[in-house]
Amino acid sequence: MTYEELCWEPLAALPEGEPETSFGGRWEDRLWLNVPGPFYTGIADNCWTGRLHAPRHVLYGGEYFGEYVYRQPATTAEVLNLVTAAQEDPYRGYACDGDSRWAPEAVRDWWRDRGRVTEYLESLLPRWSSSDRSDEREAAEGLRDFAAYTAEGLDADLRKYLFRLEEGCYPKSSGPLPELR
């Protein structure tokens, strides 16, 4: 993750009127595939529009293949892309109150259970990669990206997020970070 500022605050990048206008997701409905962070989805639509606006952040999954956030935004532009995806969701299933919901131990639990996420991605990849549908083939790229991110990069981002939860701000330097174990 590259941060625009020394003390990046993703919610400060929300445009005027947000989150009230587009974000109505509920923590109780959160899809287990959402990566820990301020943004997540509860019950979101399955029209597959999220990747049109935030292809490096949104994927489809769960029982009804609704949208979920697989990578947290790290720049203002990425936040705005996620806002656009949220605006397209007729269920208002996106949320941005994850900072008040995630506890450090819950982040660590999610990380320990990441094998479940990887298995889920691997189960969809063959079908979506060879699908006759162009949207499924495009979403297969997202599956590959999420799997690669889980293998390399997500651990560092989650450690920075743990720092944020514990200290109230993303780290300002490359000092020691909390462990995921």
Q: Provide the succession of SSEs.
A: EHEEHEHHHH
Main-sheet strand order equals 1-4
Would you tell me the overall average pLDDT? Answer: 94
Please outline the major beta sheet: 2 strands, antiparallel
Query: Percent of residues in beta strands?
Result: 5-15%
User: What does the overall shape look like?
Assistant: globular
How many beta strands in the DSSP annotation? 4
Which class do the helix and strand fractions yield?
A: mainly alpha
Spatial gap, N to C terminus:
20 Å
- Gyration radius (Cα, Å) is 16 Å
Helical percentage? 40-55%
How many separate domains? 1
Provide a descriptive summary of the structure in words.
The protein has 181 residues and is mainly α. The protein has helices at residues 50-53, 76-87, 104-112, 114-129, 134-151, 154-167, and strands spanning 40-41, 58-61, 66-69, 94-95. The strands form two sheets. The chain has a two-stranded antiparallel ribbon. A two-stranded antiparallel sheet has the order 2-3. The chain is globular, with a radius of gyration of 16 Å.
